[in-house]
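dumping this here before i forget
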Amino acid sequence: MSLLGEALNTNPPATLELRELGKTGVRIPAIGIGTWRYSGGAAPIQAGLALGARLIDTAEAYSTEEIVAQAIRGIRKDIFLATKVSPRHFRYAEVIKSADESLRRLRTDYIDLYQLHWPNYTVPLEETMGAMEELVDRGKARFIGVSNFMLRDLIKARKALKRHELVSNQVRYNLVDRTIEGGLLGYCQEMQITVIAHSPLAANFATIQAMDPEGILPSLAEIHSRTPAQIAVNWCLSKQGIVTIPRSNSAEHVKENSSASDFKLSAHELSLLESKIKFRKRGSFEIEIRRVARHALQVAGRDL
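structure:
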């Protein structure tokens, strides 16, 4: 068992739920802490850690690795730490260098989950994944994941690995953006690739509330003695193979998010959320157009 699992299973907080990461046998918190556009300092992160949300996600592009290091000082062995390499650094030597720089900023000698932040269509995936596997072989990373990879790119990423498994894909998923249900989610579930759902409350929770004209969220919140945001986070966790990493700059909201896994919505309640709240789901044509546009920008050196 991992050090994280040993630490949490010794005296797990009452609200904590653990889920297996891919097919690794390692269990991680179903609710972690995201740090995209984060500016709250160490205290809100530590508030979540105290409740068992000991999965922390950061990235070299976020400029939050130093804050994460401060928040986990002295308890690194109890944390599942995830970070990402930016697409502009996907050449073999640059992946290795970026990992070393992240390790320095995080003040640790290993990364639990090292992820490719976005696809980069100008660098062969075999080259990038070769560097990722080298990091695992050297003990600098434990597991390899990707982020923002849609189905076509995810399949290629799996095939590009030779010695290690792809364990996760971090993508946007919430009540009003359900694009991954168009095939990606099912594929990840079939292949036992953990989906790390970022933005489970959308970029702003008001966006979800505005798409709930019948007030389903507050109604269910009252029934379960929860908040509407906790209902939205719990809905994400109702799906097989998903963990989620809400982000908040306040300790109060981090605590709220971190306490959203110790109850279950009924099948009827889940059906109400999925049928009454308005959502979007990009089709395959739109996904491909966005992929082609990103490729073009990367060739022009403008999206790396």
